[in-house]
Amino acid sequence: MENTFTYEDAFNELQTIVSSIESGEINVDELSDKIKRASELISLCKAKLTASEEEVDKLLIKLEKEDTILNAEEGGAEEE
Fold first, then answer.
1. Ranges of H-type helices in the chain
2. What is the predominant subcellular site recorded for this chain (predicted)?
3. What is the rounded radius of gyration, in angstroms, for the C-alpha atoms of the chain?
4. In 10 A of CB 16, how many CB atoms?
5. 41 pLDDT band (50/70/90 cuts)?
6. Would you tell me how many other CB atoms lie within 10 Å of the CB of residue 49?
7. pTM of the model
């Protein structure tokens, strides 16, 4: 699997696989390969979501620290 796959690409391919399985378009010989591919795509999507969540958490922590510093500076200026 390519590392340049986007979440959207992987999700769309996964939807296509699921739709073809549900509709009965995939024969028994192809089913195992499609399920393996679906598993790879799910892992990719999960990894991308986890990485995004971690990045958002880091940004939120950074914003909270900046807000705390700003509030402390404003509080110090008012006391003078």
1. 7-23, 28-79
2. cytoplasm
3. 23
4. 13
5. very high
6. 11
7. 0.72
Read off the amino acid at residue 32.
Answer: S
- Tally of structural domains, the chain: 1
Give the model's confidence band at 18: pLDDT under 50 very low, under 70 low, under 90 confident, else very high: very high
In the three-class reduction of DSSP (H, G, I as helix; E, B as strand; rest coil), residue 54 is classed as helix
Host domain of residue 33: 7-79
* Rounded Cα–Cα distance for residues 62 and 50 (Å): 18
Q: 2 in a domain, yes or no?
A: no
CB-based contact 54:15 (threshold 8 Å): no
Give the side-chain half-sphere CA count within 13 A for 8: 0
Cβ count near 5 (within 10 Å): 16
